[in-house]
Amino acid sequence: MRVAIISKTFVAEAAQKLLERIAAHPGVELTLITPPEWRSDDGRMLPFTPRYTTGYTVRPTPVVFNGRYHFYVYRGLARVIRDIQPEIVHIDEEPYNPAGAQAQRAALAVGARTVFVSLQNLNKDYPFPYSAMEQYDYRRMAHLIAVNAAAGEVARRKGYSGPLSTFTVYGIDSAMFQPAPRREPRPAPDTFIIGYLGRLTLYKGTGLLIEALASMPPRCRLRFIGAGPDEPELRRLAAERGVADRVEFRPAVPTDAVPAALAELDALAVPSLTRPNWMEQFGRVLIEAMACGTPVVGSDSGEIPHVIGDVGLITPEGDVAALRDALLRLESNAALRVHLSQMGRERALRLFTNDAAAANVLRVYEQVMSATPRG
Q1: Are 225 and 250 in contact (CB under 8 A)?
Q2: Each residue's pLDDT tens digit, 175-220
Q3: What's the pLDDT at 192?
Q4: 254, CA 20 to 30 Å: which among 52, 110, 167, 260?
Q5: Class for the domain spanning 2-171+353-370
Q6: Domain 192-351 adopts which CATH fold?
Q7: Per-residue confidence at 34, pLDDT binned at 50, 70, 90?
Q8: What is the DSSP string of 48-83?
Q9: What is the pLDDT of residue 183?
Q10: Ranges for all domains in the chain classified under CATH 3.40.50.2000
C-alpha cells in the first residue's frame, strides 16, 4: 500500500524512528510530508534533519503561519499528493485544524482514504470555520486514532461515527532511552534532585513545584530543563519563597540529549493543571523518564494517570501538600525509587516503544484498506 504521512512531528529526529519501523513492513511504500522547519512552543526554530529515514521517502513541504498550530497550512500540498498518488493519507492533525482539512481535500482529489490523529480531550464548541472543517473531516475520514480515551469520546459526542482506535502514536526508542550512569558531581552525597523537562508554563504545574520545594529539606533541589513564557515568573516565585539558591534553570536540550538529562534526576515531576481550554493529553516526557528508569510523579490531570499506571506516584492536581509528600516519600525511600525505576522501564518497554506504536498503526492501515470506503 502507498501511504503518505503528513506531520510536523517528524521534524524531531528521534520521532523519525517510528517511520522506519512502519516502512520496514514489506507491504508499505511510505512517504513523509513534513515542513523543512518548525517553530516550537518555546520559540525555537527546529530544522528538519533527515537522520532516521531508511526505507521511506521524504518530501519537505513549506508551511504558511509556521508555529501557529491551529492556523498553519502547507504550500503546494495538493500537488505533492498528486505526485505521490497514495492509497492512504495519514494526517497527523486534529480534524478541526486547517492543515487537516487541507490534507483531507487533497486526499479526496486522488481517491485516497484518510486516517486522522486526535489528542483533543475536551469537548469544545469551535467557531466557524473550525467547526465546519471538523465536521467535514469527520464525515470523510476512514479511521480516527485517538491518542487518549477521552479524545475518542469527544469525537463520538461530536458526531463521528466511523472506525476508531485508541492508542498512542508516540513511541520511544528503547536503545536511546535507557538507564544511564550519573556523570555530574552533586553538591552533597544526599542531594535529591527533582526535575521538570518541558515548556516553562504555569499551567504545567511548574509553580507548584517551587511551592512544594519551599517546605522540603535543603538537600532537595529543583531543576527546570526547558524554556517558556513563564520563566521570569518562576524565577520571581523562587526568590519570593526563599529557594532561589535551590532552583536551577537549564535550557532546552535536543531529543538525543534527553536521556542524559534524565539520568541526573532522582525524580521527574509533571504536576499539570487542567484549564478550561486545556487538559493534559499525554505527557511524552513521562514515558521517556520511565524508559530511562527515572521515577515519575504526576498529577491526575487528563491522561497522566493512564500513562503512569501503577509505576509512579499520582497526586491531586493543584494540591501542593500532596505533591510535596509524594516527592518526600521518594526522597526518603531508596527502595521505592529502585522499585518504581524497574517497574517504570518495564511498562515503557511493554506499551510505549516505537515497535508497539508501529504495529498499531499498521493494523489501522490494514483495516482501512480492507474496509468499504465511507460515502
Answers
A1: yes
A2: 999 998 888 888 888 899 999 999 999 999 999 999 999 999 999 9
A3: 98
A4: 167
A5: alpha beta
A6: Rossmann fold (3.40.50)
A7: very high
A8: ---SS-TTSEEEE--EESTT-TTT-EETTHHHHHHH
A9: 84
A10: 2-171+353-370, 192-351
Check residue 374 and give its pLDDT: 64
pLDDT above 70 as % of the chain = 99
The three-class DSSP label of residue 152 is helix
This prediction's pTM: 0.91
Are 287 and 281 within 8 A, CB to CB?
no
Q: Is the peptide bond before 295 cis (omega within 30 degrees of 0)?
A: no
Which residues, 6+ apart, have CB-to-CB distance to 263 below 8 Å? Answer: 179, 180, 181, 182, 183, 292, 294
How large is the angle between the packed helices 77-84 and 98-109, nearest 10 degrees?
A: 40
How far apart are alpha carbons 73 and 248 in whole angstroms? 38
3-state percent helix, strand, coil for the chain, nearest multiple of 5: 40, 20, 40
Q: 46 near 39, Cβ under 8 Å?
A: yes
* Structural contact between residues 6 and 92, judged by C-beta atoms closer than 8 angstroms: yes
